[in-house]
Amino acid sequence: MGIAGVFSAIVIGIVIGILGRLVVPGRQHIGVVWTILVGIVAAFVGTGIAAAFGVADTKGIDWIEIVIQVALAAVGVTFLDRAKSRR
Q: Where are the domains of the chain?
């Protein structure tokens, strides 16, 4: 993965983080920066999972990969929200 790939993964991660936050019901008590970081991590991990299942590179839009990434971001946002609310 080159510089362009990392940059696009970060941009996609921001979008994935926002979508993950929108999927989680209710109000979250984490900031925008944490949401973006969760989205970036979810984008990288989701791509790895999709590659492991062989659905990362398909013709057109990789819907399965996007669903995996958004689901991971939603789990991450929920986990951080609950961790912050325990404090």
A: 30-82
